[in-house]
Write a sequence for this structure.
């Protein structure tokens, strides 16, 4: 019996996009990008921490973002969503 690999988070995932938007609106892009870059080597542990916290956050506004971040690839997707736009010189 084979199982399908878990689907990787889509950059258009509404939960991840909403989280990135909230981070940007709070003006915290730079500190969050720095933290995400520091945590990059332990994305798997970060996703396990989010998975562990999920039952404690049910019924709160943090439940959906926490569920979205329980996938290892979601951290890379969030990192990608928070990347500043590429600067093009004209």
């Amino acid at each position: 019996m084979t199982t399908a690999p878990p689907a990787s988070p889509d950059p258009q995932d509404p939960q991840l996009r909403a989280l990135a938007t909230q981070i940007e609106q709070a003006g915290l892009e730079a500190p969050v990008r720095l933290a995400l870059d520091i945590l990059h080597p332990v994305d798997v542990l970060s996703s396990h921490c989010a998975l562990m916290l999920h039952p404690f956050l049910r019924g709160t506004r943090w439940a959906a973002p926490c569920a979205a971040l329980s996938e290892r690839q979601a951290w890379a997707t969030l990192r990608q969503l928070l990347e500043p736009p590429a600067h093009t010189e004209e």
